[in-house]
Amino acid sequence: MQPIVLTHGGAGGPSADAPEPPNARSEWAAACQHAAQAGLAALVAASSDQSLAAVIAAAIILEDDPRFNAGTGANLRLDGSLELDASLATSDGRFAAVACLRATKNPVLVARAVMNTPHILLCGEGATRFARQQGFPEAAMVTEKALKRWKAARERLQSGNLRPYEERWRDMQFHGTIGAVARAPDGTFAVSCSTGGTSMMLPGRIGDTPIWGAGVFAGEHGAVCATGHGELCIKRMGAFSVYQRMAAGADAQEAIEAEVKAFPHPFEVGFIAVGKTSHGMAATDDYMPRGAAS
Ligand code: ASP
Questions:
Q1: Catalytic residue status for 177
Q2: Which of 66, 13, 19, 5 minimizes the C-alpha distance to 288?
Q3: Ligand 1 nearest-atom number relative to CA 85
Q4: Which of 16, 111, 171, 194 is most buried by a 10 A CB count?
Q5: What are phi and psi of 227, to 5 degrees?
Q6: pLDDT, averaged across the chain
């Protein structure tokens, strides 16, 4: 099978409080492309578990890039704290995730460590303690940009000047979550996903990213990664919905487009997916930086 790695940098358009710098779209896309290529290099270099190696390598690059809402640069909670969600899944049925993890540079690596335990999801204090026990040190990850977004969100909340889509604190300006999917020559698939969540959220909130079938899904027909409005993605089982369409015979692009179309307006969503012979990427209004390497 032809190896391929796809990456995304999050669905969701630019917001008023974080206006898009010139050339931002092409720079974000270039970063996603670089991560996809690094994923492909890791896939080729790995002697086993190639698709998993690929999605981890790609996710680390994007988590370390402060322009994306994952790892360093992730959004802050309304109380100013930073909590991170990340997950990994493979087509042989492995899944592991962390939620509300604090002050840890690469949540995706902590999810990888969870994969070696009897558990599939660790959250909050327990996840953070587990990360330290596993040798992941406490890291400072709050960027100026994240602080600016946080201040703007708090001001909107305090003034009551909420955007229409911020009803019930649902904010669609969560651009920058990251994810990767990979297909290896041995026919295996894997997916990684990592986020700082949305821009208006309470501490303890968990979105779709660390939820099996919502943010990620992998099986014999392929691997799928979601980005976008986490609460709705959980309710719609977004990644699994795309996967089911692929299992029923749709190619990856068709499956994604159908799910994006079915997603309730005005909430934004995006997916990347690889299948046995196809791959696809699409988002609401097609606003999602992405990369592909094969
Ligand atoms: N889905 C993520 C969440 O709701 C956000 C995103 O994809 O940008 O936490």
A1: yes
A2: 13
A3: 9
A4: 194
A5: -145, 155
A6: 91
Tokens representing residue 250 in the block? 């749709």
What does the domain layout of the chain look like in residue ranges? 4-293
Token reading at 73: 């640069």
Encoding tokens for residue 116? 């070696």
- Take residue 269 and report the two structure tokens written for it: 């969503």
CATH fold of 4-293 reads Glutamine Phosphoribosylpyrophosphate, subunit 1, domain 1 (3.60.20)
- Output the six-digit token pair for 94: 């492995």
In order, the DSSP letters of 246-273 are HHTT--HHHHHHHHHHHSPTT--EEEEE
Q: Which among 101, 195, 271 is the best mutation to test ligand 1's pocket, defined by most ligand atoms within 8 Å of the CB? A: 195
Summarised one tens digit per residue, pLDDT across range 70-118 is 999 898 998 889 999 999 999 999 999 999 999 999 999 999 999 999 9
Name residue, tokens 């990369």. Answer: 291
Q: Is 287 left (phi over 0), alpha (psi -120 to 50) or beta?
A: beta
Which residue lies with its CA nearest to atom 7 of ligand 1? 227
Which residues approach ligand 1 with their CB closer than 6 A? 10, 12, 69, 174, 177, 195, 197-198, 207-209, 227-228, 230, 233
- Please give the pLDDT value at position 156: 79
Q: Summarize pLDDT for 29-72 with one digit per residue, the tens.
A: 999 999 999 999 999 999 999 999 999 999 999 999 998 999 99
Cis geometry, peptide bond prior to residue 66 (ω within 30 degrees of 0)? no
Q: How far is the CA of 246 from the centre of ligand 1 (A)?
A: 23
Share in percent of the chain as helix, strand, coil (round to 5): 35, 20, 40
0.85 cut: is pTM over it?
Answer: yes
Choosing from 7, 104, 128, 177, the catalytic residue is 177
Pocket-testing residue among 229, 237, 263, 290, ligand 1, by greatest number of atoms within 8 A of Cβ: 229
